[in-house]
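chain below, 247 aa
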Amino acid sequence: MFRLSFSLSSACRHLLAGAVLLGLSVAARAATGAAADPRDMAGRVQACTACHGAEGRATNQGYFPRIAGKPEGYLYHQLLNFRDGRRRYAPMAHLLQHLSDDYLREMAAYFAALDLPYPPPQTSGASPAVLAHGLALVRQGDPARGIPACVQCHGEAMTGVRPAIPGLLGLPRDYLNGQLGAWKNGQRRAQAPDCMAAVAARLTPDDVSAISTWLSAQPIVDAKPVASLPAPMPVDCGGVADRGVAR
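prediction:
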């Protein structure tokens, strides 16, 4: 269930075209020493929107995640992870391999600042038993197995915490399955300590399916990430300071 296949031919053609534009803009700025102009960022990130959708608001029906409105620090760290090999996806690695930290910060800031509406929930008609299982793990976790509740880190409304913890609502069910599976199988890594790898290792396939089903079935009223958590996080996570004050 963790290995997903999908056609990328059209998306990759657009991605390569956008990568050329992105590379040209980087080269031009390096030659002139000019600072980035936020007004032209939409053109410079065409390589991103080829897969993640116009303005980064990918639909919830595909595989690619939405990046519009995600916390800036989270987006920046994921760009670093792809560039530096902690996350493995060849098109992303190719796109980012020559970009500087400062340029990645600019890209992250651009997408984080976008405030766009979300589509209706992707999943409907799911089994009540599966939804109940997912709800229990999201809200309560499973202390007997060392699994913290998702809300303890991602926020009570599951919309994330600024600037480094992502929201989990509005993501495609297949994407959620794939990422939890990638952590569980060691194909996705984050900065040490890699708290999600430790949590995912304790999840069963039924747990993963229940969590992704419940999350993808939730309506979104206000998706803005919150400023802080009400209590310290239950685990140490790389890129997050003081177990609740994200950096």
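The two ends are 33 Å apart (CA to CA). The first strand starts at residue 160 and ends at 161.
thats it, cya
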